[in-house]
Every structure is written in structure tokens, then in C-alpha cells.
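Protocol step 6 of 9: fold each sequence in the batch and record its C-alpha cells directly after the sequence line. For illustration, a two-sequence batch is reproduced in full.

Sequence one:
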Amino acid sequence: MNNTPHSVTFDDIQKAAKALKGAIVKTPLNLSVTLSKLTGAEIYLKFENLQFTASFKERGALNKLINLTDSEKETGVIAASAGNHAQGVAYHGNRLGIPTTIVMPINTPFIKVSQTKEHGANVVLLGEKFDDTAELTLKLAEERNLTLLHPFNDNDVIAGQGTIGLEVMEACPDLDIILVPVGGGGLISGIAIAAKHINPDIKIIGVQAERFPSLHRAVHNNDFTAQGSTLAEGIAVKTIGDIPYKICKDLVDDILLVSESALEEAVCMLMTIEKTVPEGAGAAPLAAINSYPDIFKGKKVAMILSGGNIDPRLLASLLMRGLVREGRITRLRIELLDVPGALAQITKIIGDLGGNIIEVSHHRLFTELPAKETYSNVTLETRDRKNLDDILDGLRGEGFTVHRNRSSDL
């Protein structure tokens, strides 16, 4: 552990823990027996998705609000956010009687706007992209004499997030590794200060989406160009904060990058195995364990499930894609003679082998097959991949030409 003094100390985090007591949920750190068996590591989950606004961001937001001067509290605060930071600032600002203004991009989904308003915030929609929104927020803060609450580049915010580290170490002091999602760096900075003060030998490992490697890029001095969107939108930050970077440079042991497919799989695993709702960023630590198994095998690992704010429609899509990936839902293109009974023969084979047909479309006109041949698209549900293979063998064994659509190979 580097002994370089940082702008946030262990004492600051302890002070924050006392200030937040009773206003923040002390979330559980639970052993996952099933994930431990699947990964070969001893896996513990810190359920920050159980906070009132379903995210750890409440901790830093509240600690910052508590530490404002009386005049700052009276005048009010402003924050640029389209997600969890907005919810935390709005909820606790309203609870403490501090006027809050939240600035969001003009294309922010209506549900996020309405939820923030319900927490008592004045919502202002400005800017096409979040970078534009952040810049306009600075101007608005000056015009209205409001105190800016930055989501991660702030000492009080970092100290608030660090209370998670205290709770994790209190619950399981002999951990080998803490895995933390990283966007702007506020969460991992606070956790690293707390955990390494208690146990200097513990490893703190950050996880980032491949498309937004802010900390990884900064540490390795790599060029970076934003590559579209990511499922882990909560950590889709282009540039690490100055304050967190100085802390991470000294205290973070490694930064791992995970793919979009790994994030999808991790969200589905947490839903189906742990019966808990994670957002993409919250599932990033499990995605890292699945992607780099050798690093974690045999280790005692805590994963920070940072939040659970995910769009229900996206979640439904992810779960269905997960069934496709596992071979439990598949779409087949089956070539057959255009004669009576051919389609019935197909359905009988599938049914006899335990498949459940969800949808059938029969095509005669829009096909390049000979005039006496046709094809059917059959979407079916199977028990598992082996059951699917048995059905494919059964169809082909009766002379049918069967293609699995490329979309079923996700």
C-alpha cells in the first residue's frame, strides 16, 4: 500500500459513516453458494441495489449535502445526472429540506424524469449529449448561485461511497479481493481507502466496460474514442475524475475490461440465480469473474452490486436473449417438400422429442427454393442445449434440411 496522503482519509470515511447512520440502508453482504460453485471462487455480494433509490449513489450524495454550509443549504444545490446520482441528490435533498435542481439531457427517458420530480427536485432538460448537459449545468449553477454536486470528483462524495468499504470489511474481514464497478472513480476510491486501511494486503480490482475504459485508459496512458453505447450505462464515463485518479493510482491493484456479451450474461445470472435485479454496471464484477476465472479461482471475493435501476423493457429483452444463448429458445429454418402433411411431420418430431413450438411461419412465395419445395421458420422452446441437439438430429435424421438462424447463436 502506498502511504502517499490523499485528500480523503480513513477518518473522513468513519465520520461519514456516523453521519449517514439511520438514513442509509446498511446493505447485506451475502455469500452466494451457487455462484461460488460455478466460478470456483468464494463469492460474496454487497447488495447496494437495496438502497431506497436502488443505488450506492445515495451515500455520497447525502454526505455531501450534510457537509454543506447553512447558506449553501438554504440557496440549494444543482447536479447534472440522468441516473442514480440524480435520484440520490433529489431524494435526500428533499428529505433534508434543501432545494435541488437536476439537469438532464433533453432525450432522457420520461420515467427517469418523472421519478426525479417525484423525489422533489426541479428538473431542467438541457443539452443533446451529457457532456453538453454538464457544461450547461456549470453555467446554470453560476447564474442561480447554486452549489454544484459532482457525482464523483468530490472529497465528501468519495468519503460517503467509502462507507461501503467499512461495511464490507466489518462483515468479512478476511477477504482476498473486492471487485468494484468503475465509471468516474468515486466508488472505488472510497472503498480502496477504507479497505486498505483495515487490511493493506487486500486487492482492490476495478471493472469497466470495454467501450468506456476511463480508468484503464488513464493508468495505461492509452488513447480513447467513445464506442457507442454500453449496457453498463452507470459507468459509461469518458474521463476519470482528477481526485479519484490520484487515489486509484496508489491503491487500485488492477482494472479489468469486460465485453457487452459478458455484461448481458452476468445480468441474467444474477436475476436467475440470486433473484435480484442488477443494472449493467452492478453486474460488471460478475462479468469480470466469468471473463477472467483464473484470477479469482480459490479466492474470497466481494462483488459490489452497485445498483438495480434498469429499464424493464431492456431487462425483459436481456432475459429472452439469455434463453437464446443457453439454447432454450431457438429459431430454425427447415426446408421441406410442399406437400400435405410435411409440416405436421415436423411438428410431430419436435413434440415427440420434448420441444415446445412457440411460433411457426410457412413460406412459399418469397424463397429461392425450387417450386415444389418450401421452408418454415419455427421458433421453439427446449429444456436445454442437449434437448435442442436431439431435436436437430431427429429432424435431420428424417431427411429435413435444418438451419439454425444466426440470431440464435448469440
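Sequence two, same batch, same settings:
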Amino acid sequence: MARTLFDKIWDAHVVQQVKEGPTQLYIDRLYCHEVTSPQAFDGMRARGLKCFRPDRIFCMPDHNIPTHDQDKPIEEPVSKRQVDALDKNALEFGLNYFPIMHPKNGIIHVVGPEQGLSLPGMTIVCGDSHTSTHGAMGAVAFGIGTSEVEMVLASQCILQTKPKSMRITIDGVLSKGVTAKDVALYMMMKMTTSGATGFFVEYAGSAIRSLSMEGRLTLCNLSIEMGARGGMIAPDEVTFEYLKGRAYSPKGEDWDKSVAYWKTLKSEDDAVFDKEVVFDAADIQPMITYGTNPGMGMKITECIPNGDTPSFKKSLDYMGFKEGESLLGKKINYVFLGACTNGRIEDFRMFASIVKGKKKADHVTAWLVPGSWPVKKQIEAEGLEKILNEAGFEVRQPGCSACLAMNDDKIPSGKYAVSTSNRNFEGRQGPGSRTLLASPLVAAAAAITGVITDPRDFM
């Protein structure tokens, strides 16, 4: 029987099938951060267990760390306690660890691919929903709970029920100003945030293949926001070129053997998916959200649609918007560039391309936060920091930052933030904050005009 890409990787990692139960699946890579791992390590300690394969486990703090003065002690007590616990646990259990200020530290979903730790054909898990990001490498990657983190620490395996398969095909050429973030927000607008629940999604089609590796990582990152268990893209020359020479990528003969195997990682022509969805790239435009879930989005030139559910009305009330309203020209207060969604070098290049030679609006507070130290170094090396500084922006130190209200970077109540992160739930960026999800191009245009602006006006 013809198999999908997901089938091939899943089947290659099955240890055993529990009778009338889940699959015991071998895990190639476990990532741990400071928020979802403490109880897992406590459980290991209580049972007197050591990690089964510590070389397969990589740890780093990212959610709670400040994005300035990282060389000083963390002031916020809860954040300090969580980061200190990860320091202790990684050392005690002998795990690979990139602490604060380590040259490889950053957001775990940025660091994995850029270091060559996330490779095609792998199974990858982390106690974080956006682990789906790593599926862009041609891997089966998904988020797990803290008890499952403990399971993988102890056995390098996990019990999982195999999800259904979905293929989303987007053919055609993406228009000017349309990024991978817009593609994802467009799909969520069409499918809603539950449209892929129960499925593992493979993205296919000419528009997907045209995306850079950074774009693919953004797209797969947002799979979880459609309810999917994960998202993935078959590896190709774009993937191989991105991975070649990275710190943990295979070298020499191992590289040649790996690429030969990776080239087999694609769905067979007659493979059958449980569900097929098709979109036309020509219909996608720059997007922005207006509500309190990522599926409440629209093309930036459109008006807020009508809705008759109580939750829809509640969402608009929270945001201070009305049905039929255009958001173009709406005053904003904050701009956030970063997160595991859009904190990579390509995102900073896009932002800089819009603001070059211009000035940040005086009333706008902008947080530009690279996803890792290597990204920050590259921003400096390419001269992007100089462009950004001249336009009135500051590049901060790496971390999850204003994606979520777990560190100092919080949006004040009632203020509007155009954010390149992944979620716009009530209070996600701080109690009472109002989040409008968008691409780096839309964020940049808002930062210099002070209002929601179509970035194509500057292109």
C-alpha cells in the first residue's frame, strides 16, 4: 500500500503496537525548556531514574528569560525559579544544555533547525505546542504534556495514538507582499482554528515549495493553531542546502548517506490521505487578525465580517472593534517582531526592507527580538542592526519575549499590538492586551506609520 510521508516516518519509529491501545513510538530528539519540564525531572528523581539516552536530549531556557541585561540575575522571582530549576536539572541528569548567554541559546524552536539538531526523518517532541515548527525539516514533530516529557526522559519512547492524515495543497505563485505568515493566517481564516483537529498535515504544492526554509518553519509553526497535531513539508534541495554545514548536521560520508535517505522522504504518488484541501496562491493577500483567536483574520484591505455567535460578539467587544469596520488606519501602540513564528533572520530582513530610510512613529513602542544568538549575530553581520537603529529601533537579546506574558515584555491593558507571534488570545501578551497577528512586513509598516497599513504601499 502506498504510504504518505507521515506514514513512512511513523512506521520507521514504531517499537510496538499496544493491543487495542496506542503505539509505542521511538523519539529521536527531545527538547526541554524551563516551563514544562520541572515536574518531569522531579518524577524521574522520585523514582530514582536516569535519562535513557541523554545525548538525544537538548535543554535551554527561553519563555521566562528577559530580553535585556541577560548577564545580570533574573529579577522576576517565578521566572528565576524556573530557569534555575532547568540549570540544576540539566546538570544533574547530564543533558546537553544551552543556558542564558550561551552562544547557541535562543527559542528552542529556532535553535533546533539552525543548529542542525532537527533533521529530516526524525521524530521530535517538546513540552510545547509549537514543536510542530520542526516538521518543516521533513520530520514528525509534535508537542507533548509534562507527564509525557517524563516518559521520554526515562525511555526515549512515547505512547501515542496515530493521528489521521491531511494534505493541504497550495499551487500557484504568491503575490507581492505575501509571506508564509499570511499563508498560515489565510488557511486559518478559511478552515478555522479547529479545521485540522485530529490530523497531521502535510503541506504541498508549488507555492509551498517556493518558500524559503524560514518560511516553511513559520508555516509549520502555525499548524497547531488550526488544531492539527503537527504539520510537515517533504524535504528537498531547499532543506538540504539549509542544513549543510550546520553544527549538528551529518558530515562527510554521513552527509551523503543522509541526503540519499532524505530524498526518499516524500509521499508516494498514489498515497491516500484521510482529507485533502486545496487553495489557490493567487487568492492570498497580506493578512491581519481582528479577533481573539488566530482564525479570526482577514485580508488587510477587507472589513471585519459579520458574526452572530456570542463568542464572536465577545471577541469584538474585547478588541474594541465593530463588524464591517476596516482596520486600515487604525492607531496601534506596540509592534513585536520575534517569537518562534517570526524571529529568524529572514523576518528581520523583511522588517528592515520596509523601515530602511524611514523613522519609527513616535508613539509606537517596538520590541525587535531575535529568536537566537546566531540570529542576532547575523543581524549585526548583515548591517541590518544599523538600518534598524537609524530608523529608531533597538534589537533586543534573544527570548520568547512578548509572545506570551511570562517575562518582562508585556503589552499593557487596552493597548493594541501588531505582533508577528502565533496567538492573539485574551491576555496572551499581557492582561487586557489587544493583539493583531500579522507578518513582519505588516508589522514594519505599522511601526513607521503608527497605524495599520498595507505593506505593499512601501514595496
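Proceed to step 7 once all outputs are recorded. Observation for sequence two: The chain has three domains: 5-160, 164-235+260-283, 287-458.
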